[in-house]
Each structure stands twice: as structure tokens, then as C-alpha cells.
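[SOLVED] Predicted holo structure with coenzyme A

Edit: marking solved, answer below. Original request kept for reference. I posted the sequence and ligand SMILES and asked for the 3D complex as C-alpha cells.
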Amino acid sequence: MIDLSALREKPTLTGERVRLVPLSEEHVDDFYASAQDDEIRRLTGTHRRIGYDEAAEWCAGRSEAPDRLDLAITAHPEARYVGELALMEVDPDNETAAYRISLSAIEFTGQGLGREATRLLLEYAFDRVRLHRVWLEVYAFNMRAIAVYRSCGFAVEGRLRDALLWEGRRHDALIMGVLENDFRKTAGL
Ligand SMILES: CC(C)(COP(=O)(O)OP(=O)(O)OC[C@H]1O[C@@H](n2cnc3c(N)ncnc32)[C@H](O)[C@@H]1OP(=O)(O)O)[C@@H](O)C(=O)NCCC(=O)NCCS
């Protein structure tokens, strides 16, 4: 059985280069700026532009969300905000949940931060929440994200053809999933 208290109580997860902290009011400006970044919007297939007030309300409400986990990714040593991630759509009966991650600007990508953040979150998802399966959707053109997910134990499970229409072109999305044992093998635990 999964432990819902591990979703209610928002953790701080510390790695070598990143620290994941509960997403909150203090992150609104960075969260909002990231939502306006065109390349991040393309990679995440985000059509809608949120306003500042909506971003503020979202960040402020995250600590009260009982059934999901939204964490800001901060990088050592100055605890600079570099993105956010979420464990969501938790299904207690099947012990599954969905995952999403987005660094906040392209300048933060390619430095190993996303992989470390994903590993920290998966460790928490399997060890503390006691999930069995974590899944996600990623666009087929997003090779960097796919490489990171594979290295964390995710495997491609399916393809949603033409799921995204972006600036007149259609793109497939891939479903990827990682089971607890897959993750433990890649993490060497
Ligand atoms: C996806 C994301 C979380 C990955 O995190 P990251 O910190 O940039 O990635 P890392 O630096 O940890 O690792 C990148 C890996 O991808 C590989 N990679 C980069 N570009 C690649 C490409 N075009 N093809 C194949 N592999 C590629 C790198 O070689 C590296 O693997 P290696 O360390 O084994 O060499 C981050 O880039 C991000 O948030 N991007 C913007 C939004 C986004 O795409 N979100 C995901 C939506 S599903």
C-alpha cells in the first residue's frame, strides 16, 4: 500500500548538485518567467500562457495539495531556482503516478541537473511513497529528455501519434514508464 502522508508532507531532497524544495510563493517570479520562455514552451508543448496572478496562486497552493508533490529544483551553492518537477495523478489503488519535470531555461540544461533531480524524486517515489510505477509523456523530438529518462530506468511503452500540433507541424508523443525494480537496477541499489 502506498503512503499518502509522504505526499502530504512536502519533503526537501538533497543531492550533490541540486536540492528539491517544496514549490511555494517564494518561487513565483522564477516560475512565471519560465512559463514565458519560448523554447521551454516548445519542449513541454505548452500552448497556454499563464498570467502572473495564476502563477502566484498555483505556487502558493502547492503546499496544500494533499495528493501530489510539486518541488522546485534549486542548484548548489546559491540555491538558485533552476526549474520544477511534479509527481501527480497518483492512483493509490494501482500504486502508480505520473511525473513531469522542466528546467526553467535552456541555459540550465545539459549539466546533469535534470538527471539528478529525476533520480532524487524517483528514490522518494519508490522508497517513501512506495509506488510501483511512474510514467510520463515526452515528445518524440525531445532527445535530451528521452536520454535522461532512459538513464533513470524509464522504457518507451507506447507512441501517441500526432499528439502535438506546434506551429503548423504535428509531433508524436511517447509514453515512458519505470517500475520500482527497473529504477533500483539503474540506481545500483
Ligand atoms: C529534460 C531535462 C529535464 C533534462 O535535464 P538536463 O539537466 O538538461 O539533462 P542532463 O544534463 O542531466 O542529461 C542530458 C543527457 O541527454 C543527452 N543528450 C542531450 N542532447 C541529446 C540529443 N540530442 N540526443 C541524445 N541525447 C542527448 C546528453 O548527452 C546527456 O546524457 P549523458 O550525460 O549520458 O551524456 C531538461 O533538459 C529540461 O527540463 N528541458 C526543458 C524542458 C523539457 O524538455 N522538459 C521535459 C518535458 S518531457
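OP edit: The mean pLDDT is 97. Thanks to everyone who chimed in.
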